[in-house]
Design brief:
Length: 115
């Protein structure tokens, strides 16, 4: 399966994932989280669309240790994520408090989202 397939499956099954966030300037390492939405995003400052992921980070490497887990991490660029693994042995997660897949215009072009 591809990275895209894994993230879609994890969202549909409400399963956590482990992944590496490889954005320049961010601490490298394994992060664990609950993916909530993968969608097409058009940045205000240019015309190109890209995929973005909204995820609730629950553990792992962080650039902001002063902020407790769980917490929103996103939107993050799909291309900045590597080595995705679905954590099938972990329990399914519940949607994070405040997550509403029907209220945000950024979810108007979803690829997958927790319902």
């Amino acid at each position: 399966m591809t990275k895209l397939d894994d993230i879609q499956k994890a969202i549909n099954d409400k399963k956590p994932i482990s992944f590496e966030y490889n954005k320049e300037g961010k601490i490298r390492g394994i992060r664990i989280g609950n993916p909530h939405a993968l969608y097409i995003f058009t940045p205000i400052d240019n015309d190109s669309d890209s995929m973005r992921l909204d995820i609730v980070q629950t553990s792992g490497v962080t650039d902001t240790p002063e902020k407790p887990f769980p917490r929103w991490m996103g939107p993050i660029r799909f291309d900045d994520i590597d080595n995705v693994t679905i954590l099938n042995d972990e329990p399914s997660f519940e949607p994070f408090e405040g997550y509403n897949p029907n209220s945000s215009p950024r979810y108007d072009r979803p690829i997958a989202k927790v319902r």
